[in-house]
Design a protein that fits this description.
By secondary structure, the protein is of the alpha/beta class. Helix content is 62%, strand content 6%.
């Protein structure tokens, strides 16, 4: 690799950097830092590790993603979804040992990073396509609801229950009588203020404002001695560098499966954010470089005593809206986080746990995307659901399966359930394509069910299969076409324009169907075969008597069927 090629990969997002970019990048970096510090503390709490671990993770993640990733705007750091996944993966393995829990959390980040780098090197970026938007939405909604109900006890100063979402919710209801009014007041006021600032003054870093006001309230009103829990001691200084202590190789290998699940979620979320802002700025994202960038960020986080990290849509939005041009903004955030660790950790020790819970809830509540679920449900209840059946309802079913899976069975099982349901519905959809009868309007052939006023040609049916023809759907297409051969029908024309491909199984089906219909006095003709469809038919059945015509009009004007 030449120096020029190496430079195009390492810190490639800084290629062509202009002096005019520096000021907006610095301003954006300051803005993101104001949001990241309190949220990093909060996400560490979600992961079940000391708050400072979130800051440890952010520094190498920001630097190494800037070096290896392809996005100019993506902000990488601790995030709620992967933090919750990390906690779910690590807790059963830690056996209640806090030190082992921290070591496993760091080791998981390392393994996620190695798997990500290997996946990117093997060009597995396409894998993200197998998590559909509805599955990801349903998963994230379920995860967000689980995180919220887990933070409510801190918000109210009550005991936290265990179990799934519904068990934790019931525990909250049972313990409401033990609510500490001071804690609830601090938590409620913090949550209300951060939501108000987000809604009405989005330019103000609401999380940082609420954190500073919470610290000020503890100092001024002596709240920590009046029953309000605070974060407590946060280690100052830079993190220890190296592998986590007491972790044999076998335990790293045990984390490979969980790491793949965490990587998949983190990659899908980060890739979506990266593509959104790349489209706005007019450049493209390389999915394989994103895997490598995410992997490098996690390896760095693991070596610096951190936790799992991934691209953040919310902080990327802050970065973009603040005017960021390149990853220099991320490097500014990393530098300011170092300053925070060296000089400002004492300030955050007085942070009320209720305020931290409010920051977490405010951060994840926007992930409860009811509008998206409502949109999928509209398709379910529309006339499309009646026409196309389960194929049109697949998106809502997949989202619902992923959400309920997370709420009932936990995070990774919920994701697996959502993907499994999505794939099953996909198989159903491709195996039962819509076969529509056509009518002519002007020079076009359109869906006759959409336009019942259009006349049909006596004795003729023109049909269209809205999918490619292959082994999985050939029987369904045969049955649908055969059902059209009712009394009085002498010609069926299959308009193949919307069938971009065909396999040998479907070619055999059409040939057999042609012979079967001929015995009933019905002639099957193919019109407008294109590309691979045409080539495979001619290659597989060169001697077939099946009539093939360039247009529907030609097919209708073809030779009369033999009686």
């Amino acid at each position: 690799m030449t120096n020029r090629q190496f430079g195009s990969v390492v810190f490639g997002s800084l290629a062509g950097y202009r002096r005019s970019y520096f000021r907006p990048d610095v301003v954006a970096g300051l803005t993101v830092w104001a949001v990241m510090v309190p949220e990093a503390l909060a996400y560490a709490a979600i992961a079940g590790v000391p708050a400072v671990v979130g800051l440890y993770a952010a520094i190498p993640a920001l630097i190494l993603y800037a070096a290896a990733g392809s996005s100019r705007h993506l902000v990488v750091g601790p995030m709620s979804a992967t933090a919750a996944l990390s906690a779910a993966m690590v807790a059963p393995l830690a056996g209640g040992d806090p030190q082992r829990y921290i070591a496993l959390t760091t080791a998981l980040a390392l393994v996620v990073g190695v798997v990500g780098i290997l996946a990117g090197a093997c060009r597995f970026g396409f894998i993200a396509s197998f998590i559909s938007e509805p599955v990801l939405k349903g998963f994230i909604v379920g995860l967000a609801l689980t995180i919220i109900v887990g933070q409510v006890p801190k918000l109210l100063g009550i005991s936290k229950g265990s179990g799934d979402f519904f068990e934790q919710s019931w525990s909250v209801v049972e313990n409401l009588g033990d609510t500490d009014w001071r804690t609830a007041l601090v938590g409620g006021a913090s949550l209300a203020l951060v939501l108000i600032l987000k809604r009405w003054l989005p330019i103000v870093p609401g999380s940082l404002v609420v954190v500073l006001l919470g610290i000020l309230a503890v100092w001024a009103l002596d709240l920590d001695n009046r029953g309000v829990e605070i974060v407590g001691h946060i280690d100052s200084g830079l993190p220890a560098v190296g592998l986590p202590a007491g972790m044999p190789v076998g335990e790293y290998l045990d984390l490979v499966g969980p790491a793949a699940g965490v990587l998949l979620i983190g990659f899908a979320e980060g890739l979506g954010a990266a593509k959104t802002y790349a489209a706005k700025a007019g450049y493209t994202i390389n999915a394989n470089r994103e895997l490598i960038g995410l992997g490098a960020a996690n390896v760095g986080s693991g070596f610096f005593s951190g936790m799992v990290v991934n691209g953040s849509l919310s902080k990327t939005a802050v970065n973009g809206s603040a005017g960021a041009k390149t990853q220099v903004s991320g490097l500014v955030v990393a530098a300011l986080t170092v300053v925070t660790l060296l000089f400002l950790t004492g300030l955050f020790q007085e942070l009320p746990e209720a305020t931290l819970a409010a920051v977490v809830i405010a951060a994840v509540i926007e992930l409860v995307d009811i509008n998206a679920l409502r949109r999928y449900y509209r398709v379910w209840t529309s006339r499309l659901g009646t026409i196309y059946g389960p194929a049109a309802r697949a998106d809502f079913l997949a989202a619902l399966a992923a959400m309920i899976g997370v709420l009932v069975f936990d995070t990774l099982p919920g994701l697996v359930i959502g993907i499994a349901v999505s794939m099953l519905l996909l198989l159903y959809r491709v195996s039962r394509p819509h076969v529509v009868t056509l009518a002519k309007r002007g020079s076009q052939w359109i869906d006759a069910t959409e336009h019942p006023e259009l006349p049909t040609i006596e004795g003729v049916r023109v049909v269209r299969v809205e999918a490619g023809l292959f082994f999985a759907n050939s029987d369904h297409v045969r049955d649908q076409v055969t059902a059209l051969a009712t009394k009085g029908i002498h010609t069926i024309v299959l308009d193949a324009e919307t069938s971009p491909f065909i396999d040998v199984t479907a070619v055999s089906m059409l040939t057999d169907l042609h012979r079967t219909l001929q015995r009933s006095g019905v002639d099957l003709r193919i019109a407008r075969e294109i590309g691979q469809f045409r080539d495979v038919i001619h290659a597989d059945a060169p001697d077939s008597t099946l009539g093939i015509f360039p247009t529907v009009t030609d097919a209708l004007a073809g030779p009369e069927p033999k009686s």
